[in-house]
C-alpha cells in the first residue's frame, strides 16, 4: 500500500518498502536531489532535512517512520525569492565544492527557528554534526550570524 508523504507542501503517494530510508525516497522516487548522501550512518549531516521543522538525518529515517511534513532544501526558498538563510549563504560565498551545503542550510534553518539569536558557541554546537571536508566552517558561522540579523530586522 502506498504511503502518503507531504514534501515541501505537496502530497506524494510513495509505493516503496517501509524500510526504505527517506533519503532515497526523496532522491530516487520524488526527484529532489538537493539532499545528499554522504555516509549513510548519521555521521556527516549531508542528508539533513526537516520533519515538522526538526532537523533529521534522512538516511536514518525509514519511510514508515516519517512522522510529519517533510521539508527539503528545495522547499526553503525559490531561485527568485531566496530564503534569508540561502541568501546569506550566497552573500558570504559559503560553498566550496558545495556537497555538504544543503545539509548545512537545513541544520542552520532549524537552529534559527529554535534560537533566533545564537551565540558563536551555540552555532558551533548546533552545527557540529554537519561535516564539511572543504572546511567552510568560519563562513557557515558568518552566514548564520548574518541571517539571524536579517531575520531579526524582518
Ligand atoms: S548521509 Fe546521512 S548523516 Fe551522512
Ligand atoms: S563545501 Fe565541500 S564538503 Fe562542504
Automatic annotation (TrEMBL):
Keyword terms: 2Fe-2S, Iron, Iron-sulfur, Metal-binding, Oxidoreductase
One Pfam entry name: Fer2
Keyword Metal-binding set for record: yes
GO molecular function term, any single one: oxidoreductase activity
Organism: Ruegeria conchae
Keyword Lipoprotein appears in the UniProt entry: no
Signal peptide: none
Protein's UniProt name: Isoquinoline 1-oxidoreductase alpha subunit
Record-linked InterPro entries: 2Fe-2S-bd, 2Fe-2S-bd_dom_sf, 2Fe-2S_ferredoxin-like_sf, 2Fe-2S_ferredoxin-type, 2Fe2S_fd_BS, Beta-grasp_dom_sf, Diverse_Oxidoreductases
Organism taxonomic ancestry: Bacteria, Pseudomonadati, Pseudomonadota, Alphaproteobacteria, Rhodobacterales
Transmembrane regions: none
Domain of life according to the entry: Bacteria
2Fe-2S ferredoxin-type domain span: 1-76
